[in-house]
User: What shape does this take?
Amino acid sequence: MLDHIDEGKGLQVLSALRIDGKDGSLITIALNVPSGKFKKKDIIKVENKFLKDDDTNKLAVIAPKATINIIKDYKLIEKRRVALPNEINRIFRCSNPDCISNSTEHIESVMDVIDKEGRVLKCRYCSRVLDVNKLKYN
Amino acid sequence: MLDHIDEGKGLQVLSALRIDGKDGSLITIALNVPSGKFKKKDIIKVENKFLKDDDTNKLAVIAPKATINIIKDYKLIEKRRVALPNEINRIFRCSNPDCISNSTEHIESVMDVIDKEGRVLKCRYCSRVLDVNKLKYN
Assistant: This one.
């Protein structure tokens, strides 16, 4: 279960993590749920979904307040907050069309997280500082 | 509440009806819910959403098994199945690029529902028979 997703980001998380229910698993999404801690939050519950590092990195960028709750046999067995790593490889695309990571040379993008609190990412190749709200996925 | 949405169509209905929670209203979506009547179904609950004719027509095309349940003060006050009208104006785009409804003359699309059961639509202008699973919205 993904809890405390920043209000209004639930559908974006769904799409970034490619949760679409096409595998037939039960999915529940709640948007704009009243929350004590923050004003409102979005929640996503998914059966049998194992988050890879790429998924938690996307989550940390899109919904930095999110918590990941792992539930097994109706018991909460793990609860953790998402956190940005020092660098994010591959998953996002640099917004600079002239950046070598966007060339035909198939170089994987590398972004340094230069401010974790403010979610500021910087392309290691062209040094462009990236707006996390406009990032495109590879 | 929209119940009995055809399995796997919930997110498409959400997008077609422009339900995105940006107005802050509480929204719950459940995908792949076990259902006695059909094998599985999707469900969408929305606060303060009034469906216009265009919305129910979209719903009838995308999720023909859907039921619309109107709940007020915790009571179910109306329950109805969606049904295709005889013609659908404006909301869908003809897939024929040469159709006059796609020209710059701003003519509204008109589609005759020639088979309600099989959900077959036919453009009144160019007579193209349209695949309901590939319709684009205007």
Remarks:
- The interface with chain B takes residues 8, 10-11, 14, 20-22, 24-34, 40, 42 of chain A (CB under 8 Å).
